[in-house]
Amino acid sequence: MHTSIHPRRLKFITLAFFLLSTSLFSRLLYIQFFKSYYLSNIANQQHNLYVELEPLRGMILDRALKPIAINLPSDSLYASSRLIKNKERVIRKLQEVLGLSYNYLKDRIYRNKAFVWIARKLSLDQVNAIKKSNVEGVGFIRESKRCYPDGMLASHIVGFAGLDNAGLEGLELSFDEQLKGTSGWAQVLRDARQNKLLWEKIFLPKDGYEVVLTIDEIIQFIAERELDRVYKTFHAKGASIVVMDPNTGEILALANRPAYDLNNPQDAPLDTRRNRAICDMFEPGSVFKIVTASAALEENKFTESDRIFCENGTYRVANHILHDHEPKGWLTFKEVIAESSNIGTTKIAQKLGPNTVYKYAALFGFSKKTGVDMPGEISGSLKDPRFWSKTSIGAVPIGQEVGVTALQLAMAISVIANGGVLMKPFVVKRLQDSQQEVIKEFLPQEVRRVISQKTARRVKDILVAVTEEGTGKQARVEDFKVAGKTGTAQKLEPNGAYSHRKFVASFIGFAPADKPLVAIAICVDEPHPYYYGGVVAAPVFKRVASDVVRYLLANAKPKEEAKIK
After folding, report:
1. Facing residues of 71 across strands?
2. Cα(345)–Cα(342) distance, integer angstroms
3. For site-directed labelling of 84, which of 38, 292, 470, 521 has its Cα 20 to 30 A away?
4. Helix or strand holding residue 235 (H, E)
C-alpha cells in the first residue's frame, strides 16, 4: 500500500519544528546570557543560608575572678517565610507561645524572605513549646544571653547589655568595644526542603575580652547590705556608699539605693538606674570642713591648741546670722573640728581668706571630674572667689554653696588617709582574654600632692578625736581606732532658701586610723525622722569598716604565711 504526504502539510510541519527549535534556542540563549545571574542568585538564596555568628561577650569578674556578668546559651527563633504555606496558622501558634502582637508577627511572616528574625534569646520553655507545635518554616539558632548571677549586686557599676549583646548602661556600655568581640559568619548548604545539610564556609567570631574589676564581691555585699539597711530604716529618698583603697584609688565597692535587677532592667524606673555616687550633686555640709582644717594647718595659720571663741552659738557674717547646732564658747582648733562648730570653722576661714580656701578645695579634687572609668560622672561645682558674695566666707568653708559627689568625698578623705596624695579612682583592674592572658592593665595613678604628710597626720589625729570625743562617736569600732567626719547638710528648696525638713546625712572616714586599709563615704538623701550624719550615717561606717577590715586582714594572713613558706 502506498502512502503519500501532501507537500504543503510537510512544509508546514517542517516550518513549525524550525520555529519551535529557534524559539527554544533563543530562550536558552536569553537565559544563559541575560538571566543567568538572576536565576543563580535565586538558587543560591534557596540553597545557601548566610548566618552571622555572634561572638561570646567577655565576662565581667570581680578582683578575685568571681563572675559578675556571664553568658548563657539561648536559642533564637527565625522564619523562612517563603516556605510557609499557611501563614495565619503559624502566626496564631507563635502568638500563643511568645505573646507577641498579631501585627508584629504578620509583618515578619509575610515578608518574602528566606530568613527573618522572629524573637531573640527565648526561654527553654518557649523553645520546647514551639518545637512541640510543629510550626512550619521556622528554625532556631544558638546564641548567648547575658546573665547577672547576683541580680542587683553592683548594678550601678556593671550596668547591662541588650538582646543584641550591646552594652546599654554602666561598664557594659563604657567597655562595650572590648567586651563585645568581632562577629563571624557561616554559609549553610540546604536541600530543596530547606533542611540544613552542612556548613560550607565559616569565618569564626572573635570573642570579647574579659573585664576584671577592682571591686571585691564580699566587700560589695557588705556595703550594699548596710546601705540597704539605712535606706529602709530612715525611709530615705536615696543613698550612696563608696569604699576605696586610699593608697591606690581602687574602688572596692560602690552602691546606690534604690537599685535594680540587672536581669530585668526593663522593669526598673529610669530613676533607679542612675549612678547617684557619681552623677548626683549635693552640698556636703560639715564633712567639707576637712578642707578648711587641712588648709589652716598646711599654711601654718593655726595649731591644734589655738583657742577660738565660738560666740556662744550666734555669729554675724555680713547680713547673715550663722548658728551652731549647740552653743559653744571657747574651743581649741582641734575641738572646733571635733565638735563641728560652724562659727569656729568660719573664723578659721576668715583668717585664711577666700583664695586659700578655694585653692585647697580645688586641690582636694572638688569642682572637677575625678576621671573614674564609669559613664555619667559630673564635676560638681565650686565658685571662683571672684563670684563669692559677702556671706560666702561663712558658707563655703562649712560645705555650703559647694556641689560635690559621693565619690569626690571618698577621694578627699583618702587624701588624709594616705598621707596627703590625691589618687585617681578606678574600677577596672585589667582586660584579659579567656585564657587569662593580660591584654591591658590599669595601674594606680597619683594625681597630685595636696598636703604634706605631716599635715595629713595632724588632720588624721583630729578626725580620730571626732569619733572618740566629738560628733562621730557612733562610728567607733571596738577592735581598732577609726578617723572620720560627720556631715548634716540642709537641702535647697526651689525658692533658693535652705530647707528645714530636707537634709543629706553623711559620714566620711577611714580605718584603721593608724594604717588605713579602706576609706569610706556614706551619703543618705532625705532621711527621716532623724537626719544628723552622726546618727544616720556614722553607724553605717562602723558596721562596714568593722566587717571589711576584718575580712581584709583575714585574707592578708594566708598570703603573708605563704610568702614566709
Report:
1. 146
2. 5
3. 38
4. none
Is the Cα torsion angle 395, 401, 404, 406 positive or negative in sign?
positive
pTM: 0.83
Please give the Cα distance from 373 to 430 (Å, whole number): 12
β-sheet bridge partners, residue 335? none
DSSP 245-305: -TTT-BEEEEEEES---TT-GGGS-GGGGS-HHHH--B--GGGGHHHHHHHHHHTTS--TT
For the CA atoms of 243, 247, 250, 255, the dihedral, rounded to the nearest 10 degrees, stands at 10
Residues 6+ apart with CB under 8 A from 218: 551
Active site residue 392: no
Dihedrals φ, ψ of 5, to 5°?
-105, 135
In whole angstroms, give the CA distance from residue 235 to residue 149: 28
DSSP-assigned letters across all residues of 175-217: THHHHH-B-EEEEEEE-TT--EEEEEEEE--BPPPEEEES--H
* Candidate list 81, 155, 240, 286, residue with the active-site label: 286
Structure confidence by residue, pLDDT tens digits, 208-232? 999 999 999 999 999 999 999 999 9
How far apart CA 60 and CA 376 sit, in angstroms, is: 19
Residue 37 C-alpha cell reads as 545571574
Q: Is the pLDDT of residue 286 over 60?
A: yes
